[in-house]
Design goal:
With 174 residues, this protein is an alpha/beta fold. The chain has two domains: 131 residues, NAD(P)-binding Rossmann-like Domain (Rossmann fold, 3-Layer(aba) Sandwich), CATH 3.40.50.720; 31 residues. The chain is built from six helices and four strands. Helix 2 links the parallel strand 2 and strand 3. The radius of gyration is 19 Å and the shape is globular. The relative contact order is 0.13. The mean pLDDT is 83.
């Protein structure tokens, strides 16, 4: 069983833990003895995850795009971990809006960015104080860098998909 320097069980928040990588991480850390706060969106997902885990795993209803939901999650986790804080945060929540850029409705793309980018920022900002309490919160990311990366990623992929030769070059480079 894992323990922190002060002898407590380390705690972690994993967003997007209903399925896939998030669920796998939650179950793995639970098996290692961590107290896992696993964010889910439905009662069914909470039950399915809890059925596979120990009592150290706490399903947490959390919508990364809703400030009230985030505040409630901070309060729940703060009450549970106390002065020990959080030892980790796994920002895994995400949605996919698939298709060529020219075919994507702007509102669907905005919804994707709300979860995948702004939700990540909101969760990170909200939980940094608990991470600092756990003495592992040394998150260093300048917000300025996010916009150029998103722009480069979006336009770079769009160009590659418009020109087959560029797509071949990008695929070979990866």
């Amino acid at each position: 069983m894992s323990t922190t320097q002060n002898g407590t069980t380390p705690a972690v928040l994993i967003t997007g833990a209903s399925s896939g990588i998030g669920a796998a991480c939650a179950l793995h850390l639970d098996q290692l003895g961590w107290h896992v706060f696993a964010s889910v969106r439905t009662e069914q997902d909470a039950d399915a995850l809890q059925h596979k885990a120990s009592d150290r795993l706490t399903p947490l209803f959390l919508d990364v795009t809703d400030a009230g939901s985030i505040t409630a999650a901070v309060e729940t986790i703060t009450a549970a971990v106390g002065a020990a804080g959080l030892a980790g945060l796994v920002n895994n929540a995400g949605v996919v809006v698939a298709g060529p850029l020219e075919c994507l409705p702007a509102n669907e793309l905005q919804a994707q960015f709300a979860v995948n980018v702004l939700g990540l920022v909101a969760i990170t900002q909200a939980f940094l104080p608990l991470l600092r309490q756990g003495r592992r919160g040394t998150h260093r990311c300048a917000a300025y860098g996010a916009a150029p990366l998103a722009s480069d990623g979006l336009t770079g992929r769009a160009v590659c998909h418009c020109h087959p030769a560029l797509e071949e070059d990008r695929t070979a480079a990866e």
